[in-house]
Design brief:
Layout lengths: L6 E3 L5 H9 L3 E7 L4 H17 L3 E7 L4 H6 L7 E6 L2 E7 L4 H11 L3 H14 L3 H14 L4 H13 L3 H9 L3 H4 L2 H16 L10 H13 L3 H14 L7 H13 L4 H12 L3
Parallel strand pairs: 1-3, 2-3
Antiparallel strand pairs: 2-4, 4-5
Helix pairs in contact: 5-6, 6-7, 7-8, 7-10, 8-10, 10-11, 10-13, 11-12, 12-13, 12-14, 13-14
């Protein structure tokens, strides 16, 4: 029977759905308790109060070990009270004993998404459900409200690309501050978009110009010829480091990420790229 909108009692029949099932949608706290243990009875109302205060940002499930002792032991519970934090069907944190409210708040802060994160996840679910246009609109609104959130910028660029709008995605990422453009996933995505743009352009320049080399590298990549692409990009990095903010080097690093650190081409061309700096 539900104790509140956010607090439930576990049973043999609903344990999996209450704790594991709900943990696929958000954070679940399982409070393993016994009516014979005084600290459990002191902790319980405090947890219920926290659940009400957080207003559904996590679910609290009471697990009476007198009734579900075997299930508790299977999860490593050897004493009560014990509170286990579940996300995506995994225990991500455990608090033993009746710790202070501050301890629980600190732990909750590590695992609870903020409003921005929840909106971002909503947008990604919209895309998964087929409403990519709506997802793009929601991410665009979030990006306007918090332009410093690089995760939102990256997701928005990816959806714009999937929607057939790579030029808009490229413009979005190119407008980020220089420091942001060098961040891991942003840097790789930006390089991929620049290669995609180059592949879609026709150049009448001589074969040795930077623009022509970039186009040749992009075409080789999309023809599944990574070695040919890396060769062109290496030459571009060597001869024209100022061209498009050293796109040759940046694109090579992005390709290394695609191929994997142990790939023979990654090892070969990473060493050759390093030689340029010597």
């Amino acid at each position: 029977m539900s104790l509140s909108p956010y607090v439930f009692d576990a049973s043999r029949d609903n344990f999996d759905s209450l704790i594991l099932g709900n943990s696929m949608r958000g954070l679940v706290l399982a409070h393993f308790w016994s009516p014979k243990a005084g600290p459990c009875m002191l902790l319980m109302p405090r947890l219920v109060k926290l659940a009400a205060e957080y207003g559904g940002r996590f679910l609290l499930v009471m697990v009476n070990t007198e009734e579900l002792g075997q299930r508790a032991r299977s999860l490593g519970v050897t004493s009560v009270p014990t509170v286990k934090f579940f996300l995506r069907e995994q225990v991500v944190h455990t608090i033993h004993g009746a710790e202070s409210d501050a301890s629980f708040r600190a732990a909750l802060g590590r695992f609870l998404a903020n409003d921005q994160d929840r909106l971002r996840m909503t947008a990604l679910h919209m895309h998964q459900d087929g409403d990519t246009e709506g997802a793009i609109a929601l991410l665009a609104r979030i990006a306007v409200e918090d332009p410093a959130d690089l995760a939102v910028a990256a997701d928005l660029a990816k959806l714009l690309t999937l929607a057939g709008l790579p030029h808009e995605a490229l413009a979005l990422l190119a407008a980020l501050p220089a420091a942001a453009r060098t961040q891991g996933n942003i840097a790789g995505l930006l390089a991929h978009l620049e290669l995609l743009e180059a592949a879609n352009q026709e150049h009448t320049d001589d074969a040795g110009t930077p623009a022509a080399r970039l186009t040749q590298a992009a075409q080789a990549l999309f023809e599944d010829q990574p070695e040919k692409a890396l060769e062109q990009l290496l030459e571009l990095a060597r001869t024209a480091p100022a061209f498009r903010d050293d796109i040759g080097r940046r694109a090579m690093l992005a390709l290394f990420g695609m191929l994997g650190g142990e790939h023979a081409l990654t090892r070969q061309y990473r060493a050759r790229l390093a030689e340029l700096s010597v």
